[in-house]
């Protein structure tokens, strides 16, 4: 083996002044876009920490002179949503009770669908996948009437289980697409070897595929969580004004109330509270979302 000499080691040379300037220009442009993107959030946060008198008399961009958390407390526990004045806390819980099961069920069913469509092929599996894929392009508005009829027949209208059912059905097309594309590149020989060893359908799925599906599981969970939590149309259509109303519908009722004083600081605090779970999910797991998409793209 030839000895490695110092001369054979490639040492990067100094950057040219032009490349340094271009790099700083790029950073400057990205910084400007970041400030523009974060500007609405800044306005919401500073407004939510001001008193109502300060909001009316002060500058939109000015920092609060006497910061207070009273708007946050009011938004959470005392502000009026329709005829009740108990804040967002009950509706926030409704969204959790709706989102968590819907995400879990749709992810599991999507994984099973992707597993069947790639590793347990059957006659007409391509047609079945095409029909499932077609569901990804159906607008929300088209399914409102048939879904309302279905919920009525099942006795799930204006209930949290009804909303879970709606989001599972609508999201199943996307979760199936994610897992199907991911499993399409999974080695078939590994599955066949497990079959020869006597492993059955669910054992192969549980012991072989799922442990290797973490990237696409993260993608699916983030996608479904943000879509379901932020949904307004299904919530206002199928929850009505009942006890199953999600937080997005309650927020709309607070902001668009035509009675009483417009408490803009409370409205901003309520909007941040409603958006906080998706913001936390993206901050903590956003990089894994991109990695999962890229892993599926490379393998597929």
TrEMBL record:
Pfam families: BPD_transp_1. CDD domains: TM_PBP2 (cd06261). Residues 92-285 form the ABC transmembrane type-1 domain. Coiled coil: none annotated. Keywords: Membrane, Transmembrane, Transmembrane helix, Transport. It is found in: Cell membrane. The chain crosses the membrane at residues 21-46, 91-115, 127-144, 164-183, 204-226, 232-254, 266-285. The keyword Nucleotidyltransferase does not apply. It is a multi-pass membrane protein. InterPro entries: MetI-like, MetI-like_sf. Belongs to the binding-protein-dependent transport system permease family. This is Glucose/mannose transport system permease protein. It comes from Inquilinus ginsengisoli. The lineage of its organism: Bacteria, Pseudomonadati, Pseudomonadota, Alphaproteobacteria, Rhodospirillales.
